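Protein modeling request. Please complete all fields; requests missing the sequence field cannot be processed.
Requester role: graduate student
Desired output: 3D structure, token encoding
Chains: 1
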Amino acid sequence: MDYSNIFRLVNLGVGGLMILGGIGQFLTLSFQNIILGCYVVIFGAATLLLEFQIPPAVSRWAPFLFSFIGRGIFYVFVGSILLHKPALWIVAGSIIGIVGVGYVILEYIPQIEPPQNMRDAGGEWGAEQI
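Delivered output (130 residues):
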């Protein structure tokens, strides 16, 4: 069974949550939250971009985004950044983190293959070199 569309929707949802959570960081107007908000918005935009187009620089500098475990750990990291006091940030961070944990688990289920846009790393990450 092909799960590509499901993964695409999940990744688009996570990217959208990242952008919304990053914009929410700007509401407190503290220097630390503005910097974190900028990073989370950039990470969310990159996640959305990867669902439509894969820039060559991403394949070279962020090959971990092309495996379930790499993307899962990335989602857990970004989700943990969003865990702050307002309930909306906690919900967004928790959803992103739970999706990340799910992706890490999917790495160890051989029957489920990653979608095409997560296999386009050019063999640099996780591939054996002879």
